[in-house]
């Protein structure tokens, strides 16, 4: 063994007070739940799996810092104003700063959009009471997580899962010069799965976290059931083994989705969830026992000189907990104004095109009619790990690059936290006829600016 090689192996960890709680946020059948331009239905007609909201509270042993992560089986905020009101009421109720709370979306495409009530839409009148239920669940569950904290450790370990595939496919039809949104077998996908294990002082598992990048788009326009897509079966698979709640943290999945998707068969979503769940369990069982590290113990001379590694009590875990918010100034593309898009929408009679215009309008409303947008980047230090993310949908190059730059830390990268903004594709794709490029309000080079800003934020909280 060379002197440069490690003689001990331990997981990136945080030690402090940790609490977890969960609530059911399943909406009623009949609620407005149309998320696909090709959909023929407008309302949900059944429930595939319940939607859940899970809160994880982290506090230092000295009680000088508390962070609350709220994981939801929800798709997206229809407007930024809806999110801002929800966030402010939640912060007021919990008496916490914005930097200390993350509201995470699984990004299922089989849940009602988070929106104001709209009586002109079928099932739109049910949205208001359901949104109130979601808010009350967030407040109650966060308080319950804070109030039920125990002294524990959050460890992280890297695994892999082949569920996600690249979904930027050059249209194979003759005469087409565009990209379509679906499985591209020629481009490998980021298969990284970052697994978090929460244990108490007895070593019992109290919660788990799965950070994985893959759009929950198994179920599409044929499906009229409320569903968490693959995330529900993933949770069930893990929780049946551990007996503890699982949180799902959506990674940088801008170009990633299951290779087999856009179906109405609920069994396919469950199969995908079990694939991710078993991959997560494989990662769990490859971890060192709680509170222990693997250490080089010496050489035994046998038929070959044998390196002996043994488990021994781990070095004390980091108790560092820090929250940081920074803003990144992003140039906007030359976009139509809100008024111009509204006029296009009023004149549109095609349901599919109307859905595209609605999305375009919501994005424009979110970023405003100016020439720049300040994207909020959130960074949390969790001991030896850093959670970093934004409301945008970054391509997976973001998480690959950040993990390359910080190899000694667990870097948990997240899309769609604290709001919903546009995509962040790499600059070289901006000349392509590609959904993520024409959907995003952000100009060429925005992803690269966000990567640099996130790297600076990580360096700052680790300093």
How would you portray this structure in words?
This protein has 463 residues and is of the alpha+beta class. It has a domain at 11-289. 28% of the residues lie in helices and 30% in strands. The strands form seven sheets. Strands 6-5-4-2-7-11-12-14 form an eight-stranded mixed sheet, with helices on both faces. A four-stranded mixed sheet has the order 18-19-20-22, with helices on one face. Helix 1 (80-94) packs parallel to helix 2, helix 3 (230-242) packs across helix 4 (266-285) and helix 7 packs parallel to helix 9 (446-462). The protein is globular.
Give the SSE layout.
Elements: E1 8-9, E2 13-24, E3 46-47, E4 52-59, E5 66-72, H1 80-94, E6 101-105, H2 125-147, E7 150-160, E8 164-166, E9 168-170, E10 179-181, E11 192-200, E12 205-212, E13 225-226, H3 230-242, E14 246-250, E15 256-258, H4 266-285, E16 292-301, E17 305-313, E18 321-331, H5 338-347, H6 351-367, E19 372-382, E20 385-390, E21 393-394, H7 397-405, E22 410-414, E23 423-424, H8 435-439, H9 446-462
Parallel strand pairs: 3-13, 5-6, 12-14, 20-22, 21-23
Antiparallel strand pairs: 1-16, 2-4, 2-7, 4-5, 7-11, 8-15, 9-10, 11-12, 16-17, 18-19, 19-20
Helix pairs in contact: 1-2, 3-4, 5-6, 7-9
């Amino acid at each position: 063994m060379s002197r440069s090689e490690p003689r001990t192996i331990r997981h990136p960890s945080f030690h402090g007070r940790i609490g977890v709680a969960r609530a059911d946020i399943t909406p009623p059948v009949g609620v407005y739940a149309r998320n696909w331009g090709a959909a023929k239905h407008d309302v949900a007609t059944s429930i595939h799996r319940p939607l859940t909201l899970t809160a994880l509270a982290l506090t230092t042993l000295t009680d000088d810092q508390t962070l609350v992560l709220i994981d939801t089986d929800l798709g997206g905020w229809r407007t930024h104003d809806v999110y801002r009101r929800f966030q402010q009421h939640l912060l007021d109720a919990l008496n916490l700063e914005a930097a200390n709370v993350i509201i995470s979306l699984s990004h299922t495409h089989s849940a009602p959009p988070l929106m104001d009530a709209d009586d002109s839409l079928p099932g739109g009148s049910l949205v208001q009471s359901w949104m109130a239920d979601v808010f009350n669940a967030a407040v109650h569950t966060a308080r319950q997580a804070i109030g039920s904290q125990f002294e524990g450790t959050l460890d992280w370990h890297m695994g892999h899962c082949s569920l996600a595939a690249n979904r930027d496919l050059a249209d194979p039809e003759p005469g087409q010069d565009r990209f379509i949104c679906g499985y591209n077998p020629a481009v490998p996908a980021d298969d990284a799965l970052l697994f978090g294990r929460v244990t108490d002082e007895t070593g019992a598992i109290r919660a788990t976290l799965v950070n994985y990048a893959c759009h929950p788009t198994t179920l599409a326009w044929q499906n009229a059931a409320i569903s968490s897509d693959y995330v529900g079966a993933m949770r069930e698979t893990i929780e049946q083994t551990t007996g503890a709640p699982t949180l799902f943290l959506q990674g940088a999945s801008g170009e990633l989705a299951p290779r087999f998707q856009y179906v109405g068969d609920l069994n396919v979503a469950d199969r995908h969830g079990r694939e991710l769940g078993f991959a997560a369990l494989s990662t769990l069982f490859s971890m060192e026992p709680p509170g222990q590290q693997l250490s080089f113990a010496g050489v035994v001379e046998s038929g070959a000189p044998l390196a002996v590694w043994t488990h021994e009590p781990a070095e004390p875990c980091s108790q560092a907990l820090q929250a940081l918010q920074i803003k990144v100034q992003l140039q906007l593309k030359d976009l139509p104004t809100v008024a111009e898009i509204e006029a296009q929408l009023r004149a549109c009679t095609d349901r599919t095109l109307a859905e595209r215009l609605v999305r375009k309008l919501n994005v424009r409303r979110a970023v405003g009619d100016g020439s720049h947008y300040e994207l909020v980047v959130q960074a949390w230090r969790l001991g030896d790990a850093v959670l970093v993310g934004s409301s945008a949908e970054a391509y997976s190059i973001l998480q690959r690059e950040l993990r390359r730059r910080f190899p000694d830390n667990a870097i948990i990268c997240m899309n769609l936290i604290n709001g919903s903004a546009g995509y962040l594709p790499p600059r070289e794709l901006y000349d392509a006829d590609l959904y993520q490029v024409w959907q995003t309000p952000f100009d060429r080079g925005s992803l690269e600016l966000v990567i640099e800003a996130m790297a600076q934020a990580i360096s700052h909280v680790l300093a």
